[in-house]
Amino acid sequence: MQELRLTPSQTVGPYLSLGLLREDWSELVFPDHPQAIRIEGTLYDGAGDPVTDGLVEIWQASPSGRYDHPADDREDLPLEEGFHGFGRSGTVDEGRFSFVTLKPGPVPGPEGTTQAPHIMVAVFARGLLKQLITRIYFEDEAEANGSDPVLRSIADERLRETLIARKEGENRYRFDIRLQGEGQTAFFKLSE
Fold this sequence. Notes:
Blueprint: H1 15-20, E1 36-44, E2 55-60, E3 86-90, E4 96-102, E5 107-108, E6 114-115, E7 118-124, E8 132-138, H2 142-147, H3 149-152, H4 157-161, E9 164-167, E10 172-174, E11 177-178
Parallel strand pairs: 1-10, 1-11, 8-9
Antiparallel strand pairs: 1-4, 2-3, 2-7, 5-6, 7-8, 9-10
């Protein structure tokens, strides 16, 4: 009779690093691309400690506001050659993650509205049975942010501010993610 062994009880690791982080997908464009921006941040748990074994995944539109996806058939908007709008970074060295990407353009929203330039974010970490979904908006897009239907749907201004990446230099933004507790990032429920 074959003996059955228990499988590890972690919700994310060690399979996260073995299966999802084999390749470095943190550079969506080359760092020397003339429009490249860097987004850096730290993933924190509910106690305020860095999460050193998590994963942050992003997907976004191109600078023209078009997604590199068959469902986005707006051929009048150009796609950046070689840019697919998807990235993945593990959290290392005190919970830090980083992406080199292009700043997205505005995209269509519900009922004919326009959404401000933003990046969709999925967070995977220990203790999470499902990924958490949030967004990155940009501090220097205040006018567009003010009319964004998603941001406007968040009544609590402090919670809304957790979605804004702060400019730290010419082409660098800071976006920390707090899973729980003081300053918790706004997360969105995925529709079933």
